[in-house]
Amino acid sequence: MVLKIHGHAIAPLVRLVAEVCREKEVPYELVNVEVYKGEHKTPAFKEFQPFGQVPYIDDDGFILYESRAICRYIAKKYASQGTPDLVPREPKAEAIFEQAVSIETSNFNPFVLGITTEKIVKKHRGLEPNEDRLSDLVNNLKAKLDVYEVILGKQAYLAGGSITLADLFHLPYGTIVFEELGYDMLEDRPNVARWWKDITARPAWLAVKAKA
Question: SS3 for 201?
Answer without folding.
Answer: coil
